[in-house]
């Protein structure tokens, strides 16, 4: 169907409606950022009115174009667009901008407001999320498109600002996007040269065009207020299939405001009632606050009706395709619904049960089985796949023009890796994973937090999980990292002790709707001997009894990961001294704390002294051991030496642990 172009005059009316909805909402809230929406309104109106493909009545339609507002502080731009183009976002919600319980929070939040594709606000994140979405779209198209019908043929768009490009994550992601030749990616750079402190030349003199060209992008430069130039640039970007496109649109922040246009004063503060009145007069806008002329509503509705016809045509084509391609149709249903086979627990266990080894190696074995059972699973490493054991064997690598595989090479870009994973998870169809050393979780922590904030299924594989890394020394030995990851609400942190727990950790990650961090060892671990009554699903409770003596124990020792087998060995030494110890493995502290109190109290009887044992800092164990308990861990940085030497020097051998527990009980 031929593209229907909105005439320039009508597009300008739509842009002005966006400007004043944004300015009025910020004014009413006495809080917000009016400048970006007012400056970017012309580009946004041209994109939504002529190019963006969507259906407000089916906001999760798989073949919709995605629109990301990477510069999330300009959220009223997005809210205005969603309202004008028919999404379920009533005018009352715009009037309640930034207020308690509204659907229009200060920054866009995925899952909170219909039509918001991703939570943005931390600058540069949306830029990188879009790259992840574009990769996912390329991978999906490779799997599902046929000569007769293409279920996936859409584009990823984003609006970004100067701050997005100053953040380093944007260039990490841009480099990979150019390398992969993501021609389904179109970004509009709202280049107004203003940040909170003033002009960008206070700290920035970079040639953005040259840098993106060097990264392999198709770059266009336009006047962001010239409708004809905007339309031509978007058309050229849509036609470019071999490179991602950056449209550098020079704009004026707070366009139309006589006193604040082009100044930092409009970046993060209301214009003021007098200045809004002056802006209305300057732009000839003869409508009151939150008043939208019927002509604007008609223009937007006409566009929506035309898009609904396209949507209906896609649905008819998809129905025929689904019936004619049963294998692809099954794959589509399995991937978009993240189907897990009923036998998955037993199958994951079958590859590691009874086997010793480093949990990173055991995890690699489980990954192979999981990949064979769950086609949605895809991912890679930040250049550490041989150490992380994170490749899916037998699957090709994702490269430019070749997206049929499942192995991604993120390069040495941990921050972008996490954001690309988030983009893939938000896109749908895929369960993404990314791997690196635990100590480098610091490099992707902002994206980890956003994974949790959005409650999306992203799987982080962190290996080399403690000072037992050994000779690489303190720069590569995590100390505070597990404890700090546990502070992130909604992040499932699992530190398995052997193959059984590793298999169950993967199962927990595949079943969990939010993000998971798997914390895995470099060093080999023995198989944990468990009571006859143990069933592997006990590990899914986050904590369970590994060994205990008859009757009420004298002490309960909780441990995770590589410390569980040491605790078991220490318990035998305690028993020789007449001390009855119960050993509780706690692979996931958060899950254990979420169990019913009856279950936790059964494992940790009241009045029995408690010890926690883990190769890291101990703050997160305080909820279980209380003020009177003992934590055996490490509260200082590590050292370069073989792991067995470090265990002896840092007090982590079984005799040393038994001695510390004995001394604790004698106090």
The biggest beta sheet, please?
6 strands, parallel
How much β-strand is present in the residues? 5-15%
> So what's the overall shape?
elongated
CATH superfamily grouping of the largest domain: Thiamin diphosphate (ThDP)-binding fold, Pyr/PP domains
CATH level-two architecture of the largest domain: 3-Layer(aba) Sandwich
Structural domain count: 3
Residue share in helices?
40-55%
Which fold name is given in CATH as the topology of the largest domain? Rossmann fold
Walk across the major sheet and give the strand order: 9-8-10-11-13-12
Regions with pLDDT < 50 over 5+ consecutive residues?
Answer: none
Question: What radius of gyration results from the CA coordinates?
Answer: 28 Å
Tell me the layout of helices and strands.
Layout: H1 8-29, H2 35-50, E1 66-69, H3 75-84, H4 91-95, H5 125-144, E2 156-161, H6 162-166, H7 168-179, E3 185-191, E4 194-195, E5 198-199, H8 208-214, E6 218-223, H9 227-239, E7 245-250, H10 273-283, H11 294-324, H12 326-336, H13 344-350, H14 359-373, E8 377-381, H15 385-388, E9 407-409, H16 414-427, E10 431-437, H17 445-454, E11 459-463, H18 481-485, E12 492-494, H19 499-511, E13 516-519, E14 544-547, E15 555-559, H20 564-576, E16 581-585, H21 589-593, H22 597-603, E17 610-613, H23 622-625, E18 630-632, H24 643-649, H25 654-666
Parallel strand pairs: 1-2, 2-3, 3-7, 6-7, 8-9, 8-10, 10-11, 11-13, 12-13, 15-16, 15-17, 17-18
Antiparallel strand pairs: 4-5, 14-16
């Amino acid at each position: 169907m031929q593209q229907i172009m909105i005439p320039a005059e009508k597009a300008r009316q739509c842009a002005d409606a966006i400007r004043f909805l944004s300015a009025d909402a910020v004014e009413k809230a006495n809080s917000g950022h009016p400048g970006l929406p007012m400056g970017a309104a012309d580009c946004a109106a041209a994109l939504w009115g002529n190019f963006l493909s969507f259906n407000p009545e089916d906001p999760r339609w798989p073949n919709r174009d995605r629109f990301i507002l990477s510069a999330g502080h300009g959220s009223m731009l997005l809210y205005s667009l969603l309202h004008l183009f028919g999404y379920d976002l009533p005018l009352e919600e715009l009037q309640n901008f930034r207020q308690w319980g509204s659907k229009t929070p200060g920054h866009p939040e995925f899952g909170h407001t219909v039509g918001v594709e991703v939570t943005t606000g931390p600058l540069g994140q949306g830029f990188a999320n879009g790259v992840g979405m574009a990769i996912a779209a390329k991978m999906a198209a490779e799997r599902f498109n046929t000569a007769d019908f293409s279920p996936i043929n859409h584009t990823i768009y984003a609006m970004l600002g100067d701050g997005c490009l100053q953040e380093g994550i944007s260039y990490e992601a841009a480099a990979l996007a150019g390398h992969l030749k993501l021609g389904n990616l179109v970004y509009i750079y709202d280049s107004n040269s203003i940040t909170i402190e003033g002009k960008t030349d206070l700290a920035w003199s970079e040639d953005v065009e040259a840098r993106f060209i060097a990264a392999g992008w198709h770059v266009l430069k336009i006047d962001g207020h010239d409708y004809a130039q905007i339309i031509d640039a978007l058309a050229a970007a849509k036609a470019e299939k071999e490179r991602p496109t950056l449209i550098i649109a020079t704009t004026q922040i707070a366009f139309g405001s006589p006193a604040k246009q082009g100044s930092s004063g409009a970046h993060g503060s209301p214009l003021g009632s007098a200045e809004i009145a002056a802006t209305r007069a300057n732009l000839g806008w003869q409508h009151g606050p939150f008043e939208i002329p019927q002509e604007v509503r008609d223009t937007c509705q006409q566009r929506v009706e035309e898009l609904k016809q396209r949507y209906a045509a896609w649905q008819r084509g998809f129905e025929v395709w689904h019936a004619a391609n049963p294998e692809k149709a099954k794959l589509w249903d399995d991937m978009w619904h993240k189907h897990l086979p009923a036998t998955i627990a037993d199958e994951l266990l079958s590859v590691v049960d009874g086997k010793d080894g480093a949990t990173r190696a055991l995890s690699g074995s489980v990954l192979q089985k999981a990949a064979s059972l769950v086609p949605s699973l895809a991912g890679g490493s930040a250049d550490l796949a041989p150490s992380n054991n994170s490749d899916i064997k037998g699957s090709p690598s994702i490269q430019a023009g070749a997206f049929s595989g499942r192995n991604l090479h993120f390069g040495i870009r941990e921050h972008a890796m996490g954001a690309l994973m988030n983009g893939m998870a938000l896109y749908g169809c895929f369960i993404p994973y990314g791997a690196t050393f635990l100590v480098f979780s610091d490099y992707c922590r902002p994206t980890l937090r956003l994974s949790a904030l959005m409650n999306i299924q992203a799987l982080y594989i962190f290996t080399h999980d403690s000072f037992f890394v050994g000779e690489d020394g303190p720069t590569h030995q995590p100390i505070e990292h597990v404890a700090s990851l546990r502070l992130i609400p909604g992040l499932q942190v699992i530190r398995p002790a052997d193959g059984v727990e590793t298999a169950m950790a993967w199962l927990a990650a595949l079943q969990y709707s939010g993000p998971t961090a798997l914390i895995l060892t470099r060093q080999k671990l023995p198989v944990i001997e468990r009571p006859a009554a143990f069933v592997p699903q006990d590990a899914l409770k986050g904590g369970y009894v590994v060994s205990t003596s008859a009757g009420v124990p004298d002490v309960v020792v909780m441990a995770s990961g590589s410390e569980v087998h040491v605790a078991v060995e220490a318990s035998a030494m305690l028993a020789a001294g007449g001390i009855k110890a119960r050993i509780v493995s706690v692979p996931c502290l958060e899950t254990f704390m979420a169990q019913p109190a009856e279950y936790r109290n059964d494992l940790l009887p009241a009045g029995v002294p408690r010890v926690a044992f883990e190769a890291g800092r101990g703050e997160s164990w305080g909820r279980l051991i209380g003020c009177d308990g003992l934590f055996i861990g490490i509260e200082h940085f590590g050292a370069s030496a073989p792991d067995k030497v470090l265990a002896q020097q840092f007090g982590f051998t079984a005799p040393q642990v038994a001695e510390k527990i004995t001394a604790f009980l004698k106090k």
